[in-house]
Design a protein that fits this description.
Blueprint lengths: L1 H27 L10 H6 L5 H25 L2 H4 L2 H27 L6 H26 L3 H15 L1 H14 L4 H29 L4 H12 L1 H19 L1
Helix pairs in contact: 1-3, 3-5, 3-7, 5-6, 6-7, 6-9, 7-9, 8-9
Length: about 240
Amino acid sequence: MPRFLAELPRRFFLVAMLAGSALITASSLAYFDFETLPPFVIEKLPVRFESLWLASLRIHVASALLAFPLCLLLTTRALQRRPAWHRWLGRITGAVVLFALVPSGVALAFDAKGGSVVTSGFLLSAAIVAWCTVSGVQAARRRDFVSHRRAMRHVVGQMSVAVTSRAMIVGLDRAGVDPGFSYVIALWAPVLVSAAIAELISSRSVFTIPNPIQFVRRIRREVSPLALLGRVRSIVRPIARVSR
């Protein structure tokens, strides 16, 4: 039961993010209808470099719909117990993020609703995703899985902004908050809070004892008379050989 309760926040996060991703997918299918323009696109037009903006929008939506569920899947125990699958899915996800999601997001950021304040928030989130993706891949290649998990938490955290930001916009709109102000808050708050939570979880995991019973048994073995005698012999023998 304690283990189930400890896993509950992570499971709730995964379920909520998968549900949010599914809702975003359903609402984004209209972007791929090349015959008509959805209301969001009509509202944004005219924009600079209209063809580039439309292409970036479709690439960003398509890559996000693929990358975010894959990132969530890569955090599950079932996939982490299968290193080969985890490695190949991670490579595919990393390529989609670095070569499609981030570049298209940067292109869209400069025409974001809310002006330069919102643009800077999108660019910060994109920079965190890109930096942590590269850092996480390098850490995995070094087999530094602690650093790898820390970097990937930041990537997943920033991707979750797409869900939490939309939820905040809906809530603030129903509360009667000014749309311009609510859009800024609904972007910056999830970006900063997600980064803070990822760091907090990573810091706690470094200092958490995975299994207290095994930890106590290991300490007992280390301080047992036989273990101490073995260490003394390992020190004395090289000294005795040199003295001879």
